[in-house]
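S.,

Sequence below, as promised.
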Amino acid sequence: MKNILIYSFLFIIIIVPISLAYTEPPYLEIIKPNPITIKTICSSGCDYSTISDADSACPNLVKPVKFQIKAGVYKFIQWDCSGTENNEVVIEAYGDGQVYIEISGEGNNWNIYGDYVIIDGGENREITIRKKAGTTYLSSLLRLRGDHQTFSRLILQGPIGECSSKMGSTNTLIAPNHQAIDKPSNYRIYNNILDSHSHKGIYVAGTINGEIKNNIIRNGEATAIQINPHNEKSYVEGIEISGNIITDSIGCTEGGHGIYIQGDADEAGTISGVMISNNIISEMTRSGIRLYSNSATLVGNEYIYHNTLYNNGERGIDIQSGNTGSKVFVKNNIIYDNNDGELNDDGEPIINENNIINNPNFLSTNLQSDDYLKLSKNSDAIDVGNNINIELDLDGNLRPSGDGYDAGAYEFNEGIDLDVLI
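The prediction came back faster than expected:
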């Protein structure tokens, strides 16, 4: 077991624009090019009055170029302009207040077709993408259509408290164009807040080499992250889903899983190389992680490492598949107090090692606590894991912090001596 050190602390109160009780995932730095051209967007007195005008002018500007959007409300648009490697087109908040991009009209999205595009809301998440009031149906808020796209520190706001039987956006954030074979690819979805999606939070229907990291997905009616290649022309390959906090489903009719890998359509494409690690998935109406596919869909191995799955309405991890050609590796997870059981492995060959299914003695199971689902000094999850090349925990701390690797999303912090609170 680890040696315990006792420190004293000076507590400083910091006021942030969005209140989060649990510890927010750390910021993942986005490397942006030094711009040669900087242009502003606002209703009056800027280089461009609309985002569409900026997009039209972009191809003729000297790259790399940065567009800064000033506070205000902007209507839904399409972005076509592309950058190149190390000369990305950057769209970011100016820093003078909140930018609202409103999507309206049946079936509309903010379609991002340009390659090598970075959209960053900034330190205070000053870009919010939301459904325009009075809109009865949306396909999605944001749809990725290009290669090498990055979306960082955005707020995607669905219909608060509305179930799909009333009105709402079908998808809060959708990754691919599922009709395409090769796009999108090499995308990054980092440090965003997705609030109140009425169908899916992030929907991956056909894409390669994507990263969905350090997001907060909460208050959703349905599944938070779903992978589902719809037809034989699409496939999902090399996706990493890590460091996300997925919690607090509002429990509408459909309900939702935390992460759902689905491939049961008759003409579905293939899924391979999905890594699910360092996620907190709790308080969902259905399972924490569900994998359900027919015999043709899974063609490569999938990995479920170092997650904490707690108090979900069905199972912690539910694996149901007729496929025998691939394996699912389930290691170093905490799977505890889920209503229909912790781990189900019906049909799919799985490698099940070093998972904790008994009481792990969390510091707190109160969603409003900074210590939510972190380990106490008495936890049986400490030092029980194997080295599976997950070098950091959800907080960005090095693994291991003591004699061995801890199960779950958090390493025990041996600098704090706290008693079990629950």
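The CA atoms of residues 136 and 334 lie 40 Å apart.

Coffee later?
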